[in-house]
Structures are given as C-alpha cells and as structure tokens.
Amino acid sequence: MIIGLIKESEKERRVALLPEVVAALVKLKIPVIVEKDAGKRSYVSDDEYIASGATIHTKKEVFGEAGMIVKINPPTSEELGLMKADQIFLGVLNPLVDHEIVKKLAAAGITTFSLDIIPRTSRAQAMDILSSMSTVNGYKAALTAANTLPKFFPMFMTAAGTITPAKVLILGAGVAGLQALATSRKLGGVVEVFDVRAAVKEEVTGLGGKFIDVEGARDEKSAGGYAVEQTEEFKNRQAQAIHEHAIRSDVIICTAQIPGKKAPVLIKKETVEAMKPGSVIIDIASSSGGNCELTKDKETVVTNEVTIIGNSFFAIDMPYDASKMFGKNVLNFLKLMISPSEGFKINWEDDIVKGTCVTHNKEIINERVKALIQN
Ligand code: NAD
Fold first, then answer.
1. Spacing, Cα 195 to ligand 1 middle (Å)
2. Whose CA is nearest to atom 2 of ligand 1?
3. Whose CA is nearest to atom 9 of ligand 1?
4. What is the pLDDT of residues 96-129, one digit of tens each?
5. How far apart are CA 69 and CA 57, in angstroms?
6. Is 350 part of the annotated catalytic residue set?
7. Contact indicator for 11, 311 with CB cutoff of 8 Å
8. Threshold 0.90, pTM exceeds
9. HSE toward the beta carbon, residue 135, CA cutoff 13 A
C-alpha cells in the first residue's frame, strides 16, 4: 500500500503529515508519495519530505499511484474526479453534517475513514484529531481575546496604579474550553466556567477556574462523555445565570457544542447589549451556529462596542504544530492496520477502525451517519 499525501486548497495552511510522520511510515515499510508543495504553507519544504524518505509528484500522479489518499479536508470535485474505486481516503469529512460528500464518495466506491468520528474511547485518545484541534482552538481563542481586549489580562500593581485582572467567562468545558481556561489563567485572568456536564467540575477547579453550577442539567452517561440537548426549563434558568455572569465579564470564550447538532445559543442579543463596552466574545462554536445569537461565522462583528469573533478554525493559524498533532493522530490510527508480517490491511475487527469508516463497497457503513442521511 502506497500512501499519497495531498496538498490542501488555498485557505488551508495545515498539512496532514509532517516529514517526521512520513519517516515513521517509511520505517514501517509503507512508502509515501507527496504532492509538490504539500507542506509549503506549514513551512515544510519538499526537500524535508525527500529527506524523510518520500518522493515528490504532481497531484495527478499521487492520485494515480497511491492506494490511500491522506488529506485533512474532503476531496475537491477535481480530486474526486481523480479517485478510483477501491482507493482509500483518510481525512476529515464532517460526515454527520456534510452528507453530499459522503454520498459522492460512497457512489464512487471509495473506502473512507473520517477521523472526526473516531469513537471516543481511552484507546482512541492518541488518534483523536478533534481533541488535538480543540487544544489549538482553545489556546488561540484565549490569546486572541487577550490581544483584542483594551485591558490587561493579569493584575498589576504599578507606580501608575493598580490594574485589576480581566474577568473571563468560558462556556463549555470540553477540550477547547479547558485549554482556554488554562491559557487564560497563565495570562493572569480570573476565570469562571459553565458546562452542563457536572463531571468537568473537578477539572475546572483543578485548573484554577470557578465552576458555575446551574441545577437540573440533563447529563447522560449513554452520550459517551458528550453533552445532550437540555429541557426548555433548564435552558431558561441557564440563560439567566449566564446573563448575570456575562455582564460582569470582560471576555467570553464560547466552546459549547453538541455533536451533529446546532450549537446551543447561550448568549442572547440582550446579554450582549448589557455587556461592558470593549468586551470581547470569541465564539469557537461559530461553524455550528455559534453560542452567541449575534455571532457571524468567519467574521468579526462589533455590536454595542462588544467585539464578537466567530472562528472555529484557529488551528489554521497555527499550521506547524496543528499539522504535527494531526499527523501524529493519523500515524497512531494507521498503526492499527499495519503489521510487520502483512503490511497494511484494514482491520475490521478493531472497533476504532470500524467506527471511523464511513463508506466501503459503495455503501455508507457508519450507523450514525447512515441514520442521519436516511432521515
Ligand atoms: P464538544 O466540543 O462536543 O463540546 C464542548 C463542551 O460544550 C462539552 O464539554 C459540552 O458538555 C459543552 N456543552 C454542550 N452543551 C452545552 C450547554 N448547553 N451549556 C454549556 N456547555 C455545553 O466536546 P469535546 O471537547 O470534543 O469533548 C467533550 C468530552 O468528551 C471531553 O471533555 C471528554 O470527557 C470526552 N473526550 C473523550 C476522548 C476520548 O476518550 N478519546 C477524547 C476527547 C474528549
């Protein structure tokens, strides 16, 4: 099996595999061919790929020769045209939402693995690209907030007087929220955190944040560590609590999401209007609708002198380390299917491999994706 690494399109600065991962694959006797300039926007040259054991080719050659295509974003229509039945695609298809690409790949007979639906078991942690990219998102969200706020984050006692620390409110304490908390604390902010999953309370306090308790949240063990939709009564109580904390905050970092669903709206227009002028809202949930009613995805809007930044893809702005983490996740996933005696072989017995596969043999085989597409 030859692995082909594809260059991403213009707006994407990451690359799926850095040379260090290519070297590890070559060591496992898996040849890697790389599209010319694949790593350029992540500051990696073709020469570095060659030094790691890869060869450089045109896009057409890579699609023609590779048994498996590795790319972060879904194939473009040009790339779909270059793919052959029984080829494997490994990347991020967002299949719970983007049904059209799934149908096209199934019809073309491509076997697809989408790393964003990897089962969230402890064994899969080292392959979890959502966790990796959320780490970058949470970190960058806190830095962007500090950069945009017209105040300091830390407390200072200076000859020119005392500076009070910035008050940060974080909505959602998943991977991104906890990273935003840790980064905001390192910058010296005072941080409050809200989540519907009581399980995260200890992690929040352990990182120096204050957990805001709102009674009566639905927290289902069956959701595999994820949040579930809340009752109307809870949502109203939650909105009131968030409003009271929001109007005292300088910064709000929104990270609350429910997989495969629209993000919960937690900050209403009235709350933004009551916030202090100069405050900043960073909405990482913007690509799934946003936690703030006024968020515009991929845009910065200013309402009532409150700056609202809608960005779910801060990882693109930190391409080197984001690519490093992504590639390591890919390598760990591929290792489930590489053995010294048989080389690469899809291991259907492995629940992680099976649970990450979306299409195979012209069919959509992932039950979650199939159920959503059929409804
Ligand atoms: P996510 O991005 O889906 O959601 C972010 C956070 O938003 C979650 O903590 C969620 O509870 C919260 N949220 C949802 N609705 C909310 C609401 N109405 N109000 C407030 N908060 C709300 O989640 P994620 O960061 O990808 O992961 C969530 C959890 O999954 C982790 O904390 C962890 O427990 C688990 N996880 C497991 C693995 C693994 O074992 N492989 C990997 C990553 C995460």
1. 9
2. 257
3. 174
4. 989 999 999 999 999 999 999 999 899 999 999 9
5. 13
6. no
7. no
8. yes
9. 10
State how beta strands 210-211 and 280-283 pair. Answer: unpaired
Show Cβ contacts of residue 175 under 8 Å, excluding neighbours closer than 6 positions: 130, 131, 134, 135, 138
**With a 6 A CB cut-off, is 52 part of the ligand 1 pocket?**
no
CB 120 less than 6 A from any atom of ligand 1: yes
Condensed to tens digits (0 to 9), the pLDDT of residues 75-88 reads 999 999 999 998 99
Q: How far apart are CA 134 and CA 178, in angstroms?
A: 9
Residue with tokens 């970058």: 136
Does residue 256's CB lie within 6 angstroms of at least one atom of ligand 1? yes
Q: Spell out the residues 6+ positions from residue 373 whose beta carbon is closer than 8 angstroms to its own.
A: 99, 102, 103, 364
Nearest of 28, 39, 105 to residue 74 by alpha carbon: 105
Give the closest residue (by CA) to ligand 1 atom 7. Answer: 256
Q: How many CB atoms lie within 10 A of CB 212?
A: 19
Residues making up the chain, counted from first to last? 375
**Which atom of ligand 1 lies at the shortest distance from residue 119's CA?**
41
Give the residue with greater pLDDT, 39 vs 235: 39
Six-digit token string for 23:
């070297």
- And the tokens for 253? 């970092």
- As a whole number of angstroms, the distance between CA 311 and CA 269 comes to 19
Let me know if 279 is a catalytic residue. Answer: no
Q: Is the CB of residue 125 below 6 angstroms from any atom belonging to ligand 1? A: yes
Q: Compute the distance between CA of residue 325 and CA of residue 304 in angstroms, rounded to an integer.
A: 38
Longest dimension (CA), the chain: 72
Q: Is the CB of 174 under 6 A from ligand 1?
A: yes
CB 113 within 8 A of CB 346: no
